[in-house]
Amino acid sequence: MSTEYKELIIKRKNPGNLQSVFANDFLASHTENAFFLVFSSVEPPTLTRSEADILTMSEIEASAVAKVVITPDLAKKIVVALNANIKNFESKFESIKEDE
């Protein structure tokens, strides 16, 4: 006896109370079954420190604002979608500089 599966349409909902968070730092890791995406916010030291303090700093804190666990197939879909969106962004605005 074979089982037939039908493809279901995903009806996405965006609840009004869903909080947006700002991130300017990112870390990705994975296991055999999942990818872990940790988004962080790094506050520039110029906002909280003196120039003398900044010159002697060797590290800066990044506060995690969100951690998302996703499946490997979704990770690949995200890469494809981000590549398309970046290409579109750069054609409309400017080239995004990569950190070295």
What does this structure look like?
- The protein has a domain at 25-92.
- It is built from two helices and three strands, in the order E-E-H-E-H.
- With 100 residues, it is of the alpha+beta class.
- It has helices at 51-56, 72-92; strands at 25-30, 35-42, 62-70.
The total of helices stands at 2
Shape: elongated
Beta fraction: 15-25%
Radius of gyration: 20 Å
Helical fraction: 25-40%
Multimeric state: single chain
Separation of the first and last Cα atoms: 57 Å
The major pleated sheet works out as:
3 strands, antiparallel
User: In terms of per-residue confidence, which ranges show pLDDT below 50 for 5 or more consecutive residues?
Assistant: none
Strand order of the largest sheet: 1-2-3
Helices and strands in order:
Layout: E1 25-30, E2 35-42, H1 51-56, E3 62-70, H2 72-92
Short description:
This protein is of the alpha+beta class and 100 residues long. It has helices at residues 51-56, 72-92; strands at 25-30, 35-42, 62-70.
Top keywords for this entry?
single chain, 100 residues, alpha+beta, 3-stranded antiparallel beta sheet, 3 strands, elongated
